[in-house]
Amino acid sequence: MKVLELLDEIEEIIDTSSSFPLTGKILVDAEEVLEIVREIRVELPDEIQQAQWIKDERQRILDEAKREYESVLKDARNQAESLIENDDITLKAKSRADELMRVAETNVKSLKMNTFEYIEGILYNFQEKMEHLNAVYCNEMFDKLQKSFDQIGETLTENRNEIKDLIYRTQMESDKG
Question: In this predicted structure, what is the pLDDT of residue 107?
């Protein structure tokens, strides 16, 4: 998946970027990160197209199974009608037609079940990949952002307290003088 590779690239940029001491901030090449984000935007529709292809393929397989079922059913009926000549042949034909119907229905049911299981497996794998993307990359990025904001907030609070202390000392010195 190209999107995962691009997200790994962003993570690599963040991990290898220079940091500012005591601030928890890093220096990144904004153009490089923005270019990767643009590539992700381009690649994401491909992932969505893949899901659409799976859906279309499922429908195509179901349509094909239905056509095959109808063809087998039609052949069975035609064969049954052609065998009807007398009572003995009619009974044999009916028996054969019933057998063909059972076989056809069993084959169609089996084909449908295999198709559904195949499609379910593909959809399950796709869902797992998307959940993994969300869990690993999105949550991690948001956690890093939250930590950065918390560190910035702490730094600002410390700086404000230092300024307040300087103001207080300056006032005390001017009151003494």
Answer: 92
